[in-house]
Write a structure and sequence with these properties.
- The protein is mainly α and 216 residues long.
- Among the domains are: 7-69; 76-161, Ribonucleotide Reductase Protein R1, domain 1 (Orthogonal Bundle), CATH 1.10.40.
- Helix content is 74%, strand content 0%.
- It has helices spanning 7-30, 42-66, 74-84, 88-99, 103-120, 128-139, 147-153, 156-161, 171-215.
- Helix 1 packs antiparallel against helix 2 and helix 5 (103-120) packs antiparallel against helix 6.
Length: 216
């Protein structure tokens, strides 16, 4: 009663894990094919296969129902991001790139800055004074980052935009990922259509062959 669990997501994670497990059952059984009579494992493999499609289909149905119903509270996301110092790693990366610090030094400064703003109850982007003090204590010199550069380095928009490698959240990375997914989907859809056509033609040919046998 004290929390609101994302029930559809919980169910999808569970069903997806079950589906992967069932697929593993098939693969781990089939690797014995060259060394055994596969009739011994037919039942288990077929049961796992049908069950995998059943649970996998339920995942897709839940996902298709959930996504259109989702909404994002952008203000709350920003408040949570600031309170948790989620973008602190980008500050450390900026120090490595722009100040020439080692990763250890950069993360020491970032950690001190994060602890200070959390203690003071302020957003990370407002912690320039704490940052400059931590930087001076770690390096013995003043930082070249001015308040505007510090605010940019700790902004959520910067954090997202700079993570443009495969798997990252930047728009460019997502566009490439979606293009790959669409290409894979088109390939699978084409293969499915080819198999469906082949099976239909084979069924028609089989029926025609039996008809000729009956006529003769």
């Amino acid at each position: 009663p004290q929390k609101r669990n994302p029930v559809p997501i919980e169910h999808m994670r569970h069903l997806a894990s079950v589906t992967v497990g069932r697929c593993d059952t098939i693969v781990n059984t089939m690797h014995n094919t060259p060394f055994t009579d596969m009739n011994d494992s037919e039942g288990e493999v077929q049961q796992a296969g049908y069950a995998a499609f059943d649970s996998g289909g339920r995942v897709l149905e839940l996902l298709a129902a959930m996504l259109p119903a989702c909404s994002i509270n952008a203000d709350r996301v920003r408040r949570t991001t600031e309170a948790a110092c989620i973008t602190i790693t980008e500050l450390a990366d900026t120090l490595v790139r722009d100040e020439g610090l080692s990763f250890r030094q950069a993360h020491e400064i970032a950690a001190h800055t994060a602890r200070a703003v959390i203690r003071d109850g302020i957003a990370l982007g407002q912690g320039y004074a704490a940052f400059t003090a931590a930087f001076r204590a770690e390096t013995g010199r003043d930082t070249a980052l001015d308040p505007a550069a510090f605010e940019t380095a700790t902004a959520p928009e910067t954090f997202v935009a700079r993570r443009d490698r495969p798997g990252g959240p930047a728009p460019a990375a997502l566009d490439r990922a979606f293009a790959t997914y669409r290409e894979s989907w088109a390939h699978l859809a084409t293969g499915r259509q080819v198999r469906h056509t082949r099976l239909t033609e084979a069924d028609t040919a089989l029926g025609a062959a039996f008809d000729r046998l009956l006529e003769s």
